[in-house]
Structures are given as structure tokens and as C-alpha cells.
Write a structure and sequence with these properties.
alpha/beta; Ubiquitin-like (UB roll); Rossmann fold; 3 domains; ten-stranded mixed beta sheet; 5 helices; 35% helix
């Protein structure tokens, strides 16, 4: 009786072991089959990729450069350093973009493929809006307040100068206001003011504007758009009084009491008040 129980237990253990071995073998065979399929799929993909790289129909035949103004198509192609007649899919677009954006004029670049054989380089250049003088040199600044390059002899620009700017410190909130004001005053609707030659930033007194027609505008620290609109009323009143021509200092810091002074020279606008003064 005891020996029969032992035989039954041994048989049960053998059966359990056999099932486990069969299960483990099936799992191993399944894993090997999946691995073989993955290797085969990888080999096929590699073969197809190599076939595409060598396909004559995907040879780079044209590079289209778009959006350049300050730079030339030749400048962009020299920066891109793309091998002629290479395969279009073999071009590393990220590396090409990095090389082109190394030029300070380039704000953004899109590098795209147009099958079967064209590469597109769509350039977004920086637009300088003002000059900033620091340590005896002039630098170009865009509308976002980014100083992107030192002015060189090859830069054909005629821009207003921002003074009172310290590039070594955190940007003043007045800098952004000065750039917005420069864009507003550069519009055709303010052509009667003349070309803006300088905007001075002072953390205490605010913004002052000089134009090539002899206008010196003191605008204070706030409500610049409203004060510029009020300037139309001031200039119309001056024209009635026969004062519109000549060098004038217009104090708009307090829009409720605008004052106007004649000036013999633009640099005397902040001096002691002399001569006739008018309140609008």
C-alpha cells in the first residue's frame, strides 16, 4: 500500500516535470521564432534602405533657397556644405540647419525634401530695426531686442540709434517700449515727423526721440502710443502758429500740459529753458 502511494507520487512528479519542460521548450522556441523574425525584418529594412540610398531616382538634382534678402543664395549654399549629386535621403537635415543658423543673419531655417530630387532651404532672416552703440562699436538689434551682430562695412543699413542701452545688464522694460515706438513712428502715417535718428532711454526720465527734421520729443515713461497720437494735434497747432518748421523741443511727458520750445541745436533740448515757450 505504501509502495503504491510512492509510485503514484513519483509518477505525478514526472508528469509535472514533463509539462514544465515542454512549456519551457515551447516558450524558448517561440522566443527564437520572434527573434528570427525580427532579424529577418531588420535585414529586409536595411536592404531596402541601402537600395533607396543607391537609387538613381533619388539623386539630389536641385537645391531651392528661399527667403533670403540680406544674404544670397550663394551664401546659404556655402554654409550648407551639401555634397553635389548625393542621395536626397542621405542628407542630414539637422546638421545642415545647424550650419546655416551659425550665420547671425539667420533667425530660423527649414530644411525639407521634395521628392524625387529637390532639397528646400527656407530661410527666415533677422530684420534689424536699430543700432546700439557699445564700447565704440555699433551693433544690429532686431525687433525682439536681440543684438545679433556687430555692424560691418558690408552692412548697408540706415537705422535709428538706441542710446542709453547697457548690453551688459538685464534688458530694461523701456527697451521693448522703445522698439515698439520705433516701429510705430516708422509707419507712413508719421512720415511728417521725418526719419527717426535716435531714441534715448533713461530709467528716470523715460524715452526721448530725435528726428532728422529737428524734432526732439520727450515722452516720459508711459502711454507712448497715446502721446504719439496727441503729437498730431500738437503739430497741427504749431502749423497754425507758423512754428512747425525749425528745431523744436516738444515735452509730452505730461500729456495734460504739453510744452514746445524752439531750439537752435538738437543737443540743447535738455538745457536750461531759454527763449519763447508755448503751452498747447
Amino acid at each position: 500500500m505504501v509502495s503504491q502511494k510512492i509510485k503514484v507520487n513519483l509518477e505525478a512528479k514526472k508528469n509535472r516535470l514533463r509539462r514544465r519542460l515542454i512549456g519551457a521548450l515551447n516558450e524558448s522556441l517561440g522566443a527564437l521564432a520572434l527573434l528570427a523574425m525580427a532579424v529577418a525584418a531588420s535585414a529586409v529594412l536595411i536592404y531596402l534602405y541601402n537600395a533607396l540610398l543607391s537609387a538613381p531616382g533619388l539623386e539630389l538634382k536641385e537645391i531651392s533657397v528661399r527667403g533670403v534678402k540680406e544674404l544670397t543664395e550663394k551664401d546659404i549654399l556655402e554654409l550648407a556644405k551639401i555634397q553635389p549629386r548625393c542621395n536626397l535621403l542621405a542628407v542630414n537635415t539637422d546638421a545642415v540647419a545647424r550650419r546655416i543658423t551659425a550665420n547671425p543673419w539667420v533667425r530660423k531655417i527649414y530644411v525639407g525634401r521634395e521628392l524625387p530630387g529637390r532639397l528646400v532651404l527656407d530661410v527666415r532672416e533677422r530684420t534689424p530695426i536699430a543700432l546700439v552703440k557699445q564700447t565704440g562699436n555699433f551693433y544690429l538689434m532686431d525687433a525682439e531686442g536681440v543684438v545679433f551682430k556687430k555692424l560691418s562695412r558690408t552692412d548697408d543699413v540706415d537705422l535709428a540709434i538706441l542710446t542709453g542701452v547697457n548690453l551688459g545688464k538685464a534688458p530694461s522694460p523701456l527697451l521693448a517700449e522703445a522698439l515698439k515706438l520705433l516701429e510705430i513712428l516708422s509707419a507712413d502715417s508719421y512720415a511728417s515727423l521725418g526719419t527717426i535718428s535716435e531714441i534715448h532711454i533713461d530709467e528716470v526720465f523715460g524715452l526721448s526721440v530725435l528726428t532728422d527734421r529737428g524734432l526732439h520729443l520727450k515722452l516720459g515713461r508711459d502711454n507712448f502710443t497715446g502721446k504719439v497720437r496727441q503729437l498730431d494735434v500738437v503739430l497741427a497747432d504749431l502749423e497754425k502758429r507758423g512754428m512747425k518748421n525749425g528745431r523744436l523741443f516738444v515735452d509730452l511727458a505730461d500729456i495734460s500740459k504739453v510744452t514746445v520750445q524752439r531750439k537752435d541745436a538738437p543737443g540743447k533740448a535738455q538745457e536750461q529753458k531759454k527763449g519763447p515757450q508755448y503751452r498747447i
